[in-house]
Fold acetate--CoA ligase.
Amino acid sequence: MEYKDIIYKSPVKHGLINHEKTYKDFQWEDVKKYFEHFTDEGVNIAHEAIDRHATNSYKNKIALLWEGEGNIKKQYTFLNVKAQSDKLANALKNLGVEKGDRVFLFLPRIPELYISIIAIAKIGAIAGPMFSAFGPEAVKDRLLNSEAKVLITTPELNQRVNEIKEDLPMLKHILLVGAKDNLKKNEISYESEINKASESFKIKWVDPEDYLYILYTSGTTGKPKGVTHVHNDMISHYITTKWALDLREDDIYWCTADPGWVTGTVYGTWGPWLNGISQVVYNGRFDAEQWYSIIKKYKVTVWYTAPTALRMLMKAGNEIIKKYDLSSLRYICSVGEPLNPEVIKWGLKVYNLPIHDNWWQTETGSIMISNYPSLPIKPGSMGKPFPGICAKIINTKGKELSPGKHGLLALKRGWPSMLREIWKDKKKYDEYFCVSGWYTTGDTAYMDDDGYFWFVGRADDVINTAGHRVGPFEVESALVEHKAVAEAGVIGIPDTERGEIIKAFIVLNYGHKPSPELKKEIQKFIKKRLAAHAYPREIEFTKDVPKTRSGKIMRRLLKARELGLPTGDISTLEEG
Ligand code: AMP
């Protein structure tokens, strides 16, 4: 049986030494003692992540080791991050930003992105990081729904904002990082505001339940939903970083995720800094040699990445690894999509280390299920629930299923970093809790006899391509805006490198003929509107797209036909 295939028993004796015992005894409440200012006066995650370190023995410790393309390097101590974020917080206040206001970020992974996330929290405002590959439509959806007051971006990315600016009456200011001149209406230079701002800032103490950030994520239907998290999340951020990512004082940590995705916000910003850890940020495209050179140059000890990246590294071959001294690495973790056993076995061979998979979601706000350093790894399994997390496999009525049975992966509601709202959409929020007492994840899974969880798939039509969640409806809606497209049905199909790729079935409007050129044009259209990761890598022109009598696209039928699987119940299929 696959789960007997245990390949790695760690000799490590630190972090979460005894999962079973800690799981029994653990109380979330106990984590508060690690914070300096979890008091009745209020809390602020930015104080715990940056300011307190800047006034203790960590003040000259490196918080951020930054490298951009072209070998440009910068480094910031905790004191530097405090000083810069204090100034930015003052600058934002001067622009009228107050507690609860939304400040959105459309930036590459430059130091200003991380400093902005901290500064926004210091005011008690709500940060909205957006992935820098988003096209105008994706940016508009987010700014419009959140009613963002301020946007921080670069002149280059601002060109995409210019296309939609007229539709965003709530957006008062655009702060441009690195703007030379020619500022238009509403545009302000980030640097000149910072230069004007006072250096001393008094942090805003907020209620633990006050909002901290919003990240938009995709479901099967509708526009992306604004998943909202609070300052109280710091409890989960702190302890999961310590126990699941095993970060310790002297580590040099590299999280490869962009803060436009939840891993980059939580484990590429808050988690490591709450633990006072030095972290590396590389602002550049994936390139195997470049990645290995980052590990070598900065002597990275803990590396948190994703299965697609690992598969791409595997494809790049074992020869190039020999060119780089990777001996600093001591712990590797992965998240975002299923991690295939071959990759774990390969990692063991070439890095001499196992890869620790973990599972969580934008909505859960922190790692829920993980392979810990002290637990034997069963390749292909996501691991065991984090202490304080009750994960079960249930059916649609809430009945717990026995080991080995496939069902819905559900979590007992109420852990510190659970989502607090879908921004302005109570109905969508309630859908997560449709089974009484449970948060339903949308994933299907099973648990084995030893309590390890195994991912099976999504219970809905959401596509996971290279670890990025894409809603088929968003792609279909963007497709039908192309003049040649009358109807579109979108599904995910298996891909050895990216987990899934997006395939679109397209019915053309009268007068348009299928051609390879038209496919390319449609792909370009989606890349530009939504994002590069969301375009259909495969397009099939078809005469019709199967729909139910009520007009819903039957994506499941499309998928079953595509993969040669049984088509199941199609009694609601539209006739004729
Ligand atoms: P996101 O909210 O964008 O981070 O996406 C969360 C989704 O990614 C989950 O609901 C899963 O479908 C998938 N996912 C995350 N981690 C894993 C993992 N370790 N194994 C399999 N799927 C994962």
